[in-house]
Write a structure and sequence with these properties.
about 325 residues; alpha/beta; Arginase, Chain A; eight-stranded parallel β-sheet; 10 helices; 10 strands; about 15% strand; globular
């Protein structure tokens, strides 16, 4: 299988607020290293992505948001801040206006939704490369007639139209889906199998019927992102019915998870193309999940998804540092 990857992600080693303390981010460069090592051992072919498509990013997100991501670090330093990670500390929640501040700290608060994601000197290069990887995966899937996998880091499915959080800054799955639409795919599906709900992907496509979003995830009553991912969120306007959330309880095992996958695949059947947001934090020993899937289950997951017979591009989402991380991704790709 063709693997699209880049070393640009290494510059994004950020800090996050976790349980009241500033700590090194859980979504660290070593994640991609573990995955890449496992895929090289499995004999997969690696290529670099093409250039980032700024115009495409400005349609999936907003042009002003993309510009903020590109310039935030320089503006942070230029404002005299000496902290090694740029982040806001106040968010426009209920009762506040949603105006655009002039100050970089206010801007970072306005355009983020959680304190687990910050910006450092190498962040823009990393997120631009990650988006380019997703775009290239979509292109190569169509051009080569075979599934391509994008080793995207940072991940993307929590990034909304103009807000970052959940370790995500640019929504790679949405970028890939829009690329497929731009290249003539009439209706595109996004299947999100990450442990956490892809709230950003949902937001971006919520009022559209040309992209069907289906997510299997931990119930937001119990898990991040808490404020999105409920079954009654079905889309709005033209997108009514094009959004399906399959929320599962903590501790879900393989039988319940694969029952949800069957429902998801039935909803996605007959579309022109598919993007898979591949989170492997559903693994039984993942440090940030509670589900009980095994390495073999990721192979079964891939086999069932492939059974749709739909042109498919894959982008990497979650799955956190453990001895099994690369093995789980490799198990999935071995059955595509």
């Amino acid at each position: 299988m063709l693997i699209i990857a880049s070393d640009e992600h290494r510059g994004h080693r950020y800090r996050e607020l976790h349980n009241g303390e500033m700590v090194d981010g859980f979504e660290r460069p070593e994640r991609a290293d573990l995955i890449a090592a496992a895929l090289r051992s499995a004999g997969h072919h690696f290529v670099e992505p093409g250039p980032v498509d700024r115009e495409l990013l400005g349609r999936v997100h907003t042009p002003a948001y993309v510009e903020l991501l590109e310039t935030a670090w320089a503006r942070w330093v230029g404002a005299g801040h000496t902290a090694t990670a740029a982040m806001g500390f106040m968010w426009p929640t209920g009762g506040f206006t949603d105006r655009e501040p002039a100050d970089i700290v206010g801007l970072l608060g306005r355009h983020s939704f959680s304190a687990d994601t910050s910006i450092v000197a190498g962040t823009w290069a990393a997120v631009a490369s990650s988006a380019a990887i997703a775009t290239t995966a979509a292109d190569r899937t169509l051009d080569d007639g075979e599934t391509a996998y994008g080793l995207c880091r940072p991940p993307g499915h929590h990034a909304g139209r103009d807000r970052f959080g959940g370790y995500c800054l640019v929504n790679n799955a949405a970028v890939a889906a829009q690329r497929l639409r731009d290249r003539g795919m009439g209706r595109v599906g996004v299947l999100d199998v990450d442990y956490h709900h892809g709230n950003g992907t949902q937001e971006i496509f919520y009022a559209r019927d040309d992209v069907v979003f289906v997510s299997i995830h931990a119930d937001p009553v119990e898990e991040f992102p808490w404020f999105a991912g409920f079954p009654d969120e079905r889309g709005s306007g033209d997108g009514e019915g094009a959004n399906l959330n399959l929320a599962l309880a903590r501790g879900t095992g393989r039988a319940e998870w694969f029952a949800a996958l069957a429902v998801a695949l039935e909803r996605l059947r007959g579309l022109d193309a598919l993007v898979v947001s591949l989170g492997v934090d559903t693994f039984e020993d993942d440090p940030l999940g509670t589900f009980h899937l095994t390495t073999d289950d990721f192979g079964r997951m891939a086999t069932e998804i492939t059974g749709l017979g739909t042109p498919t591009a894959i982008v990497q989402e979650g799955g956190y540092e453990s001895d099994d991380l690369g093995r789980n991704v490799a198990a999935f790709l071995a059955h595509i």
